[in-house]
Amino acid sequence: MSRLRALVALVALLVAGGLMAVIPSTPASAAACVAPWQASAVYWGGDQASRNGRNYQAKWWTQNEAPPGTTGVWQDLGACDGGGTPPPSGGCNHPNWVAGTWYAAGSIVRYTNGLYYIAEHDNPGYDPIISTWYWEPYTCGGQPPTTPPTNPGAFVVSEAQFNQMFPGRNSFYTYSGLVAALSAYPAFTRTGSSTVQRQEAAAFLANVHHETGGLVHIVEQNQANYPHYCDPGQPYGCPAGQAAYYGRGPIQLSWNFNYNAAGNALNLPLLTNPWLVQNDAAVAWKTAIWYWMTQNGPGTMTAHNAMVNGAGFGETIRSINGSIECNGGNPAQVQSRVTRYQQFVGILGVSAGANLYC
């Protein structure tokens, strides 16, 4: 008992003398906050922004949707420290880049040259200084570069790849016209992973190739069909004439009601001036993207949704031509589209995915 009293007295003495202190647990420090979210800014997949003390990363293109948002576009990266405390001396602790390793958008690596790079898009370990679409330089110890990409509206298909896909195309179908048309529907080939984006681009261009003979034909070749595309039962009628609504453009837009709907969506006078589609390359491409993004056609979903939601290339055929080709209607035509799609995904370096046939 006397020993216990002596021990208690010794502990009391040490505490009183300041020789014994309680060491509090240190909470893990939060990451530094990246650049604040701005309503006017455009964010592509992999771009980051901070808001209300948390960092977020965009999964696909978005604008004017404040994180955390309601559509699922923003991934919450956790709490951040608004003070932006620099990393410890001696540099960053990001891992070395390893070829063949899967990197999700937002991953940061140290390359063999000692510099750091951030993955702008998912990729299977592409070389950061060669595959510059997938990687951007990263300022270690600070924030990712805040300057926007030099061409944020760039198509996932390069001009060289486009020319490879359509070596004998009509000069009317310009690559610049296609790129100019992208602004009409920013989600087109900008939704989902980089693989999905390329698959959608390949699917769209494969169907376009089939519809136009390789981007050769601007208008429908069978002129005997021209008077058939006026539905007089529509309240607006056919102000451009009975035979004015024949197929035009990359997906051969036809019928007065389609010209009316596309014109309303694109703010173009296509009902009264359908010839715009065969005279202006950007307008022609916009009508094709309009159909792809907004119309189910004879199918049950848009071609865009078929590709980004995993239904597969076969459903894009159904959305364009339905039972005329699908369900045994014309297997040779279906095979033609599928073969072209497989060729195009090969050019873009991605797999074709499942459900190729309808």
What does this structure look like?
With 358 residues, this protein is α+β, with helices and mostly antiparallel strands. The chain has ten helices and nine strands. The protein has helices at 2-16, 159-165, 175-181, 194-212, 256-266, 276-279, 281-294, 303-308, 313-321, 331-348; strands at 31-32, 42-43, 48-51, 54-58, 62-63, 74-81, 108-110, 116-119, 135-138. The strands form three sheets. Strands 1-6-4-3 form a four-stranded mixed sheet, with no helix packed on it. A hairpin with a 5-residue loop joins strand 7 and strand 8 (116-119). Helix 3 (175-181) crosses helix 7, helix 4 (194-212) packs across helix 10 (331-348) and helix 5 (256-266) crosses helix 7 (281-294). It is elongated. Mean pLDDT is 81; it is low at 1-27, 83-91 and 142-153.
Please render the helix and strand layout as text.
Blueprint: H1 2-16, E1 31-32, E2 42-43, E3 48-51, E4 54-58, E5 62-63, E6 74-81, E7 108-110, E8 116-119, E9 135-138, H2 159-165, H3 175-181, H4 194-212, H5 256-266, H6 276-279, H7 281-294, H8 303-308, H9 313-321, H10 331-348
Parallel strand pairs: 1-6
Antiparallel strand pairs: 2-5, 3-4, 4-6, 7-8, 8-9
